[in-house]
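Appendix B. Raw example, untouched.
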Amino acid sequence: MSKRIMILEDDSNLLDLEEMILTYEGYDVTPIRHYESIEYLLDFLPEMILLDVRLGDGYGNSLCQEIKNNPDTAEIPVILISGSNNLQRLAKECNADDFLSKPFNNIDLVKIVKKYDCAKEDVN
């Protein structure tokens, strides 16, 4: 069974690219082009979340903090993605598991996803 990854990214081209790459790698990807509530995320129960910091209608780092503060979602790995110069600080402040700076290449995307995919498998 493939891992369920949710991607929240408001750039349609980048979202399509991320979805294509990760689907090719065997992941079950749920692409979302806008900010969603934590309740919405709970309906999907993703096993990993890739989260853009600046969504058109909200901030990914705020959503990340909500995810990490909720006992039902706190264990889901969250990877912040942004072109922001202060991405490392933002990731630390909202308790993201990791971050990926834009622009990134396909190899970096797959590498960071597999890093947390393997960590989850080691626990089970």
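End of appendix B.
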